[in-house]
Amino acid sequence: MTAQVQDKHLYTEAELTDLGTRAFMGLGLPEADAADVARILVLADLFGLSTHGLSRIESYGDRLQVQGINARARVSTQAVAPALRLVDGDNGVGPLVGMHALRAAMEAAESCGVGVAFARGSNHFGPISPYGLIAAQAGYASIIGSNATTTIAPWGGSDARLGNSPLGFGVPNPDGDPFLLDMAMSVVARAKIRNALKAGQSIPDTWATDAGGRPTTDPKAALDGFLLPIGGHKGYGLALLVDMFSGVLANAAYLTHVKSWVDAPDEPQNLGHFFILIDTRKLGSTQWLAQRMNDFAAILHDSPPADPARPVIVPGEIELAKMARQRREGIALDAATVALLRQHAAKSPA
């Protein structure tokens, strides 16, 4: 199935999963590894997170081609305690390492009720919500995080020392949609600041600082400066803790030890991730959890909206609605991304 919407075409999930798998095989990954990467990126596209979906073939592909990422990574897992796993990604593609860590944490949680996996030797692993969804569909609540290249100054500082690290939570609902929270540590993404610059608009002074660390409303100065964390000094503290769990505890790089994706594309980043999973089936029956989750959502949904056109929603609701719609109608993907996927897929041995 291929339909066209403006400058984008619509594809089925199966078509994009197959194309994505073959594209990463064309970049040197074994088929099973390529399938892991494609699964996470296609889920991102289904959620409407196109900047973290199959469009990542460009940046991942560039680094694979200059051997900044190891296409034949031998990801290994060590059980250091009944509920604790250490995953060495061997500088593999981020979603591959992420999937290994997720499976390791799920396996530990299945036997112990709680499972924790720390991964090192990784790279950008996509958005968190696909991992949260996979975990929730298997009955696991999750807390997942990763560190990132430095783009945020320390609170009160004037140079980039910590990354815009993502943090996510997921809670399953056996009789409905799970709750999925996936957020980065900055007030806004740099893309929003770039869009303001193109439009000739100013930005709120809570978004970013200039190169001297001073809050600015000038988008150009902001792009030359640093992103501000959510919640001021509280967000700064949260960003540090995500990096401590992802970097320090995982024995990965942290803060300024993380190599720049842009400045050093041929050097391993050694990013770290953490996956904390809870087997909700150990807490009670699926009927018990479903009743509580549905009641929880109903209490929120029943709040009269301040704006009738914008009813109250719960975390993940927008993304899951997009997923359901795109699974029915097709996934929109721009022509440039499809062309690059096909270019790499043409080199696939399969």
From TrEMBL:
One MF annotation (Gene Ontology) recorded for this entry: oxidoreductase activity
Keyword Oxidoreductase: yes
Coiled coil segments of this chain: none
Keywords, comma-separated and alphabetical: Oxidoreductase
Family: Belongs to the LDH2/MDH2 oxidoreductase family.
Protein name from the UniProt record: Hydroxyacid dehydrogenase
Organism of this sequence: Bordetella genomosp. 8
